[in-house]
């Protein structure tokens, strides 16, 4: 009996192990069933939302195209800005060169003016000296003229006396 009991116990343990394997497989199948349901629900949602997804995809493509056009426009504007910067730089360089040329010309003209002022001052000084010399010479000539006139007068007086004396002789 004990042998039968042991045999029954072994058989029961065997059935218990078998039962556990079946339960484990059922749990696995249940887990797979839940995953399949989730996947099915997700697919149904995607199918239901497929047209909004398509719309969103089209909007995304449109925005992407718009962004590409904007990037191209921005690149074009950047190129134009660089051209304008180059033109402004060249104009500034030209303006600076012109300013330097004008400064040099002004400096040269100022130097020339200074030289002319010195020349004028020298001429004025010489003119002052000449004027004094002329005044002195004029005074001398006036004295000589006065002496000449006095001598002429004396000569006439002497001549007249001479003529008077000749007549008397």
Automatic annotation (TrEMBL):
Record keyword Glycosyltransferase present: no
Superkingdom as given in the UniProt entry: Eukaryota
Annotated localization: Cytoplasm
Gene: Deup1
Protein name according to UniProt: DEUP1 protein
Residues of the signal peptide: none
Statement: the UniProt record of this protein carries the keyword Cell membrane: no
Keywords attached to this entry: Coiled coil, Cytoplasm
GO process annotations (BP): centriole replication; de novo centriole assembly involved in multi-ciliated epithelial cell differentiation
Coiled coil: 99-126
Example of a GO cellular component annotation carried by this entry: deuterosome
């Amino acid at each position: 009996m004990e042998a039968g009991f042991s045999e029954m116990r072994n058989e029961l343990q065997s059935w218990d192990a078998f039962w556990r394997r079946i339960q484990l497989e059922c749990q696995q199948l249940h887990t797979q069933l839940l995953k399949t349901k989730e996947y099915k629900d997700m697919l149904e949602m995607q199918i239901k939302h497929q047209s909004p997804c398509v719309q969103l995809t089209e909007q995304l493509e449109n925005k992407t195209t718009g962004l590409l056009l904007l990037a191209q426009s921005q690149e074009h504007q950047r190129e134009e800005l660089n051209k304008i910067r180059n033109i402004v730089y060249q104009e500034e360089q030209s303006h600076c060169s012109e300013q330097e040329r004008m400064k040099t010309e002004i400096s040269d003209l100022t130097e020339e003016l200074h030289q002319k002022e010195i020349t004028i001052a020298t001429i004025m000084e010489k003119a002052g000296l000449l004027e004094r010399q002329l005044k002195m010479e004029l005074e001398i000539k006036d004295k000589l003229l006065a002496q000449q006139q006095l001598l002429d007068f004396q000569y006439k007086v002497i001549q007249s006396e001479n003529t008077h004396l000749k007549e008397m002789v």
